[in-house]
Queue: 2 jobs
Job 1
Amino acid sequence: MKCLIIDAVHSAIAEELGKYMQVDTHMLPTQEELVKLIPDYDVLIMRVDPKITKEIIDAAANLKVIGVCSVGLNHVDMDACKAKGVQVFNAPGLNANAVAELTFSKMLDLSRHTIPANYDVKVNKTWDKYKFVGRELRGKTLGVLGFGRIGQRVGELGRAFKMNIVAYDPYLPAHVFEEQQATSMGIDELLKVSDFVTIHMPLTPETKDLFNAKSLAEMKDDAVVLNMARGGIVNEQDMYEALKAGKIGGYASDVMENELAEGAGFDSPLFECENFLVSPHLGAQSTDASRDIGAHIIAKVKEALNLG
């Protein structure tokens, strides 16, 4: 058997699976390159790039397992995999703490203006504390859209900062909100009352462009939106216009709408906004999360193939 690894994943995956099969690495191939590579392999280990299309699955003559070292699966054609009998495993929840901590990192950066302040000191050689008057998280309302493992961990951290937690998740029973000391709300109400809104939902037809001109207009003028989920949930043109008009206090994101396309979405108007913070989808990029995800994927692949 043969395994192909196409992204940066924990070294334990190659080490352990290498005991049972040949393991090759080809970092971040294009879809066209993967179509040519995939026919010889039984196992594919990846994260979110490139998008796994029906064409790739059709070319995968020997493929039995895809191990996705991330949470979302919207980049994998699951119908094509099911039709070919290819098992797909992801790693739900194992990056929860890493993503939650990144959320608060960005929340604090926007609240205390640490990024522009750092630039002012290091680049402009200016020492002026009066330019950067921020606000505390204490006493503010944190709205969590999607109250699964990541959302609940965000809520837990929010409580440590003495924030009031409100959350939306139509799939959870009432007792979960009670246990997490969060008030359950509909999306419209949550957007109106929250000082910070953090997104931890999958990208679906229902959540596409959830943040648009209409929904943004319902929010507080100094509200901050944080998106550690998927770029398409926020309409970037509408967010740009809200930021420029002072209708939104800030937008911090770990994702872009076209991040998987050539150019990675660098033509987005958001890059013109000073109160826009972005990172290159590094939510799960911690040594701790990588280790835990690696161990989970190893176990799933070995179970699927009856190894060891």
Note: The first helix runs from residue 11 to 17.
Job 2
Amino acid sequence: MGRLSGKVAIITGAASGMGRATAVRFAGEGAKIVIADLNKEGGESAARDCRENGSDAVFQKTDVSGEADVKAAVDRAVKEFGRLDVIYNNAGLGGATGPLENITVENWDKTLAILLRGVFLGMKHSIPAMRKAGGGSIISTASIAGIQGYAGIHAYSAAKAAVINLTRSAATELAKDKIRVNCICPGGINTPLIYGNIAG
């Protein structure tokens, strides 16, 4: 019996990087997984990896900045596997970079839509399903950049700082429902999000 046997998890941004590694690990611990990502080829491949690691998994094409897509991912988990116990709000991008005065409003808004609105929507739509399950766990990827600022990644830093404090406020509100809310704050990790965007 794995530590997550009988549990159902949604992992956003699970077609690659940290999300994919987490999905495969969760599957190895017995969880059934919904891979929620825009990348269909990578998402289907990640779902196969999860199945090969001993559990069931499906891919759900999801734009985390779109409310209908996030709700559909939650609905898919409940329809496919009967419940929802965990959501890992992990989808991300580097987003708007460069000097502050050069950042366009469009790039700023897109960055916050994915990094912050996506976390909000994941929380919002998972709560009713977790209440029905008797509790659950909401996890979000923040960043060390949300704790201390870095020049050139202003939108990213601002969004991740907001994720940290949203986690605190949500944890306070949802404790009565036995829903734990946590975030992780990694430093630089060798994933496509970081190193795929660095010029050689």
Note: The radius of gyration is 16 Å.
